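Reply to dn_fold:

You asked what the input looked like. This is it:
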Amino acid sequence: MAGSEGPLKGVKVLDLSRILAGPTCTQLLGDLGATVIKIENPATGGDDTRQWGPPYVEDTDGNRSDLSAYFMAANRNKKSVAIDITTSEGQSEIRRLASHADILIENFKPGGLAKYGLDYETLSKDLPGLVYCSISGYGQTGPNSAKPGYDLMAQGYGGIMSLTGEPEGAPMKVGVGIADVMCGMYASVGILAALRHRDLTGEGQQIDLALVDAQIAWLINEGVNYLTSGSVPQRRGNGHPNIVPYDVYETADGHVILAVGNDSQFRRFCGYIGLPELADDPRFATNPARLQNRDALNVVLRPAMQKVDTSSAINALEELKVPVGPVQSLDQVFGTEQVAARQMQIAMQADPGEVQLIGNPLKLSRTPVTYRTAPPGFGADTRAVLDAENPFED
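and this is what came back:
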């Protein structure tokens, strides 16, 4: 197949990031064909997430490897090189690697690399075409720029926790590090845009990306709801701020998701639950009316849904073209034919043995993603990379 090694084949990435935001970005670039050299600190045993377990991959003798599940989630298609950047030798090695790279990505505190001569201002003097992406908690500027940044803090500061959780409950973070992950997605877009500019003009640049900025950006409709109305949104559990009914409803044997997006769907739904009169009730006949009378409607809907079983409700409402779906646990998710068909679970061969990973969702018809190397052991590629005349050779 044309482009079978990926659309970014030949792009060289020097990855000085750790934890999740930066590694999410560089794994995506690697999946798309880029060669990624991941720099890890020998004084700490590498990326912090190598120690974020259990679970870990074990070898055939049951010994724990340095591949935690957390680390593996964002570090395939990379070479691991152990370099101590606090030493003059380590700094020289980073500068040599950067001279071969198209992209450098780092997530040190603002100014943290300047004392090693590895900041953008210093490197760009000799490497004007380098695309240099800096990820930090609050960005390179502003009164909070010196503060550390972690996913939970970004979710709190950026407002998403105030919108997540039950109405009378505590503010709640999202169940995964979504601020980090989305920051990595924005980093990928910014890097590719800067790379396009570099390819056209020869001019590199620095990308200044903050966890908090990225998190504020994906407040989307709730953020603009506030900016438009001046009213601070409240937590609604699984309810939607602008659509009703759009929620999780208890059934006789579990739960279902209803996502009734228009009035005709609502009418068909009311017929299914045996309450067709609701569709003509002026309190509920239109979405704005349902939104205004959310609580009154749910007083009627919740008991009605508790009388039906989950599979029957899903089958019947799908037949009626009313958006409905299950709430699945992860064993159910990865056991579905859909996941298998879409290759969202993949197997790769790592040094300790076969590992199971989550697949890349991008399905490119001409230049598909590739899974070339499993997440590496700490420093596994140090000698091969540092001894090579061209360190980014595959």
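The domain at 255-326 is CATH 3.30.1540.10 (formyl-coa transferase, domain 3).
Hope that clears it up.
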